[in-house]
Amino acid sequence: MALPANLKQAPTPQELEYITGEIIVAIEPLFRMEKVRLVSGVYGPFRPPAKTRVPLWLAQSLKLKRKCRIVPPDWVTVDFLTLRLQQETSQSELSKMPFRYAEVAKVLLDIASDDIMEPDKIRILLKDIREARQAKSRQLLLALDAPYTTTENLCSMEICEMRLFFSSAMGIISKLDVEAPAQDEEMYDF
């Protein structure tokens, strides 16, 4: 499907972070309040030390006001990320990561690094995973030779990074397939 020129531009990392704000995360509130009704839903009650689930944008706002502690997702651990890095470096396919892992990790490390165990090591592991995945993505793009291909386990940021190139390449490949004469037609030209 051909997209208009204004839709071909990929979202910026900041736009992807904004979109990520709707992801639900757990917080430990540092204040007491009953349920709060917002446009995006009803959240609460907020009673320390009980955990409450809220959108990431609300968790960010409360964290910046020092009203909560953000509980990092299960995948934001040294053990999980070390295992994923080993998979990325030892296997040819991309390992399964949360779809918006890069955006969520950046937000959490920017505003809630004090709530994460070993944040510096997490940053290094995430950087290494990202570099390994980028190398695999480049290999995937080099292997384009058909008007269709399968790409499993790509994440949001990776899709946006390769979207323009990928759609241009697929357009060129499909034009080449249409313009190339079929061998059957040449053999039976009457």
Overall geometric form: elongated
- Mean pLDDT, to the nearest integer, reads 84
Major sheet strand order:
4-1-5
| pLDDT < 50 stretches | none
* Major sheet summary line: 3 strands, antiparallel
Domain DNA replication complex GINS protein PSF2 N-terminal: 12-71
GO biological process, one term: DNA replication
Organism: Serendipita indica (strain DSM 11827)
Keywords: Chromosome partition, DNA replication, Nucleus
Protein described:
- The protein is mainly alpha-helical and 190 residues long.
- The chain folds into two domains: 57 residues, Ribosomal Protein L9, domain 1, CATH 3.40.5; 101 residues, Up-down Bundle (Methane Monooxygenase Hydroxylase, Chain G, domain 1), CATH 1.20.58.1020.
- It is 52% helix and 11% strand.
- It contains eight helices and five strands.
- It has a three-stranded antiparallel sheet.
- It is elongated.
- It holds the Pfam family Sld5.
- InterPro entries: GINS_A, GINS_bundle-like_dom_sf, GINS_Psf2, PSF2_N.
- Component of the GINS complex.
- One of its GO terms (biological process) is DNA replication.
Summarize the SSE layout with pairings.
Layout: H1 5-8, H2 13-20, E1 24-29, E2 36-38, E3 41-43, E4 52-55, H3 56-64, E5 68-71, H4 78-90, H5 101-111, H6 119-142, H7 156-179, H8 183-187
Antiparallel strand pairs: 1-4, 1-5, 2-3
Helix pairs in contact: 2-5, 3-5, 4-6
